[in-house]
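2024-03-11 09:14:02 INFO worker-7 job=invfold-0412 stage=load source=structure_tokens
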């Protein structure tokens, strides 16, 4: 009887055993292939990411991707294999080929994880032909001419933010300036591109009403590298079992704001939605493209301005220098220069953009047919390559003491510094709104100097830590200042 049971057990176990052995054999062969035979096997890096993408998924999820890869570059040189098919490059000479020449290499498929409400956006699409008519329709709104024509309205947003800051300062409580700068960012985007001020700066709640919507989208960065099918299932599961009220309310609010906006926009209107409707896009897609701007334009500029404010407080002598420049300019009366032309002010903004790490990680693009040889290293077609702001901006040879806020370094900028400055990306897929974002930062910095509002202020946190997701997130969502 015992013999019979053993015999039966062997018969049942055999297929299971065979499957386990087959799986192990497959994994072993695949591992050996990926390490020794794969077309990227000549690229250095630690063993684990050569074997599996799970290493990259993990670091993206916990939010230490950029700093972990930074350490690997120190060990392995300018090219580091960060997943079986992906390489992080720290050499800025790679930028022209990957991002600029002939439109650069196409964006990697993982950008689809940033699609909005089932629509590809100007940001998320990997298809140049899909993007082209949409970008063409809206690009004029970001030109220097369009911004100049609407300067008064943008100054208006900045002035309201500074007034609100003064009001908050009176309370002598710690002020979360990140919330205020995010409010300014959404007001600037809506005022300039939608011609309807969202007026976040006037909100009296502890947190800007669009924040939870923006945060939910920023958190997509944790799963940026997941294959889209896995991402879609995950998103569905989160929506079903882990939805939270705050995010749902914020989403509904943004949806309503954008819905009203698009419904009341005519194809003749020269606004962002008007131009997209005139280009023949559906209402539903135009709504998605507008929501995408609220996501892309809120945290990025908000984070930068809050970091500039914090550094002006941490370094009173630099704030003094900025104020002297701005006040001397004001004294010129009718001959005063535009804020954009003030050298130290611009250096403050540029250094803020360098150090704030709004988009710290690699911008992954796909090597096209024919492959690519960069400085004697061959990258086969289909492999994913990219540079990151973290790697380029924190290069100690180009930017000595890279983690320190030193606007002075930009007063005599070298060619290499300009080459390594990657805050808005580069080439045809660089930030479409870089002129608008820069102008907002320049105007706000001017007013912070002119108003003296940061005089005698103390920074609350000793350090500001971030989750290094595609769009970074400040841990605790607070950058606080306190007026003594
Ligand atoms: C300081 C503020 C900002 C920073 C640092 C920033 C950074 C970037 C970067 C690095 C990219 C390239 C992403 C990639 O290639 O994957 C990008 C693209 C983009 N940004 Fe910004 N951005 C800022 C402000 C804004 C604002 C205010 C808006 C909207 C009004 C905006 C809208 C976009 C869009 C639509 C794209 C996609 C462009 C394309 O693929 O054609 N950004 N941004």
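2024-03-11 09:14:09 INFO worker-7 stage=emit residues=484
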């Amino acid at each position: 009887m015992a013999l019979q049971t053993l015999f039966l057990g062997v018969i049942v176990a055999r297929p299971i055993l065979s499957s386990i052995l087959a799986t192990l054999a497959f994994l072993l062969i695949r591992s050996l292939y990926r390490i020794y035979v794969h077309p990227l096997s000549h690229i250095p890096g630690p063993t684990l990411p050569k074997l599996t993408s799970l290493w990259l998924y993990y670091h993206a999820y916990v939010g230490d991707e950029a700093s972990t890869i930074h350490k690997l570059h120190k060990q392995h040189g300018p090219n580091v294999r960060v997943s079986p098919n992906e390489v992080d490059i720290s050499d800025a000479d790679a930028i022209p080929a990957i991002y600029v020449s002939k439109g650069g290499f196409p964006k990697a498929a993982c950008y689809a994880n940033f699609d909005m409400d089932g629509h590809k956006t100007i940001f998320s699409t990997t298809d140049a032909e899909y993007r082209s008519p949409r970008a063409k329709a809206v690009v004029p709104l970001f030109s220097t001419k369009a911004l100049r024509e609407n300067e008064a309205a943008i100054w208006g947003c900045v002035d309201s933010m500074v007034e609100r800051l003064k009001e908050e300062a009176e309370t002598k409580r710690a002020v979360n300036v990140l919330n205020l700068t995010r409010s300014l960012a959404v007001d600037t985007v809506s005022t300039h591109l939608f011609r309807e001020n969202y007026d976040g700066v006037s909100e009296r709640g502890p947190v800007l009403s669009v924040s939870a919507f923006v945060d939910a989208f920023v958190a997509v960065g944790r799963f940026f590298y997941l294959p889209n099918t896995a991402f879609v299932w995950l998103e569905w599961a989160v929506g079903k079992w882990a939805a939270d009220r705050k995010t749902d309310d914020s989403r509904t609010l943004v949806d309503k704001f954008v819905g009203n906006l698009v419904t009341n926009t005519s194809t003749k209107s020269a606004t962002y939605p008007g131009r997209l409707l005139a280009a023949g896009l559906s209402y539903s897609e135009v709504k998605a493209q507008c929501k995408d701007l609220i996501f892309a334009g809120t945290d990025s500029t908000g984070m930068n301005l809050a970091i500039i404010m914090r550094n002006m407080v941490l370094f009173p002598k630099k704030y003094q220098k900025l104020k002297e420049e701005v006040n001397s300019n004001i004294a010129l009366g009718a001959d005063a220069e535009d804020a954009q032309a003030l050298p130290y002010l611009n250096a403050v903004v540029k250094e803020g953009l360098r150090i704030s790490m709004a988009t710290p990680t690699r911008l992954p693009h796909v090597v096209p047919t024919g492959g690519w040889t960069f400085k004697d290293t061959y990258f086969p077609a289909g492999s994913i390559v990219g540079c990151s702001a973290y790697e380029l901006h924190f290069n100690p040879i180009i930017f000595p003491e890279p983690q320190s806020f030193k606007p002075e370094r930009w007063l005599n900028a070298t060619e290499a510094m300009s080459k390594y400055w990657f805050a808005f990306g580069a080439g045809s897929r660089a930030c479409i709104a870089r002129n608008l974002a820069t102008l907002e930062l320049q105007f706000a910095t001017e007013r912070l100097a002119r108003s003296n509002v940061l005089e005698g202020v103390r920074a609350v946190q000793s350090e500001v830590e971030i989750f290094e997701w595609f769009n970074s997130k400040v841990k605790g969502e607070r950058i606080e200042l306190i007026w003594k």
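2024-03-11 09:14:09 INFO worker-7 stage=report msg="The CA atoms of residues 175 and 464 lie 15 Å apart."
2024-03-11 09:14:10 INFO worker-7 job finished
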